Amino acid sequence: MKNKTPKSLCCLIAVLGFAFVVAMPLFESKFVIAGDNSNRICGDITFGTTTNDSDGTAVTIADLTTTNISVSSITPTKAFCKGSGYACRFGTGSLVGTLVFNFSSSYVITKIKVLAFEYGTDGAVSMNVQTSALSSALTQTISTVSAPDISNSSTDAGYVFTGLDGGSGFSSTSLTISSTSDRFYVAKIVLTIGGSSALGSSSSGGSVASTSSSGISSSGVSSGNVSSGSASSRSGSSSSSQSNSTYYRVAPKTSSTTSTTVYTVASALGSYYSTSVKTLTKGTYYTSYPDVAAYYQAFGEVPSNYSFATSSNENTVKAAGYTKYGESARLWFSYSRTDGYMTQVPQYNTSGGSLVYYEIDISSNWSSYSSNRGALRLMAMPFGCQEYGTDPVIFYTSDHYVSFYEYYNYSGGWGPDFTGRTDYVVPSTVTTSYA
To answer: Which residues pair with 2 in a beta bridge?
Structure first.
């Protein structure tokens, strides 16, 4: 696979002063979000996407490129890279792989998104991530089967780890990534640097990246002003939910045309800026959860390759969908339950006496989806939830409703992993306007 020189979409703002930022023609279009005083930039460490199945050459610092972060040395243990443009392979058939990145300066690393994928037929494998600010590693399971697009890392969910500053803005002098059993590849690491975050468990991504949670990946935000408000002042908010100014959402904006612009968000000196990264168009097939979430948020409907089904006819509808849409065929469902996993997410609103939410299937490939709906779903509340009012709210689950991530309505805007209302973080809704 040919490697492309990446342009980090999330690292478009250097902390050089507000006047300088506005003066530079960095963005195709932008909006400012008021409501967070942290100064954050993004950095990245890039290897490549070409696989290295048998070469046992240990990775060297010459094999990687960096942006906005200085790596002084690396310490590999069973971590291999054949050369520039090759993905870094962790582990052998019997030994785990570890790679330590030592930085030239200390950095407050609040979050990273790792673009990783499986090695050959080894299958899913656990990956550990730890900064020197943490006393123990965070773990996620690598289950992506194909190499990511590292030229535009905001379009790939990746594997997002939050709270890498210990939750209190602690700086780090090193970052360690390791395998726990079988092998896997790492193509790129996107780092959020600066500010502080509430310590949380790792979350599968995202994108919310690019700002991925916030990385779990692309989302649509339409132009215009957004109403402001804080979580603590919203009526109907669960008293057990946390309010954390580190997390923010952009109020949903709908599109009345056949297309919507997708934006990513970056911050500098207390203000937030966006840049357009893609356009979603009605009639185009979409299957990834960031695209489908952005599509629904903008248009208030699922993409055209989705067919409505019920539990009694889903197999028949799925087969018909395949005939019409090929391997892009997916299903969506309507429910009105209030028990089970619905006691874990915020309470959804009624409209005209109608109590309804949607399950929107997400699957990475047809071969598995043709026989099983899988564990990846979007949950859309078309009439909103009690925390926000009547604006639609979308959640993502990668494990069939064991845990959830809230979509914050911008590219990479995904909230922290939560497993119930007691640890659900209610973000602030911020005010935006075009600069």
So the answer is: none
Q: pLDDT (tens digit, 9 = 90+) per residue, 350-362?
A: 887 778 999 999 9
Long-range contacts of 134-137 (CB under 8 A, 24+ apart): 134/163, 134/164, 134/166, 137/176, 137/178
- What's the helix, strand, coil split of the chain in %, to 5? 15, 40, 50
ω before 334 within 30° of 0 (cis)? Answer: no
How far, CA to CA in Å, does 176 sit from each of 42, 99, 122, 164, 190? 18, 6, 22, 11, 14
CA distances to 240, 402, 416 from 419, rounded to whole Å, are 13, 6, 10
Contact call for residues 21 and 268 (beta carbons, < 8 A): yes
**pTM for this model (two decimals):** 0.51
CA-closest candidate to residue 410, choices 228, 225, 227, 211: 211
Quick count: other Cβ atoms within 10 Å of Cβ 384?
Answer: 17
| Cα–Cα dist 116/127, whole Å | 9
Strands (E) across 97-158 are located at 98-107, 109-118, 125-131, 138-142
DSSP code, position 155: G
- Predicted confidence at residue 244, as pLDDT, reads 52
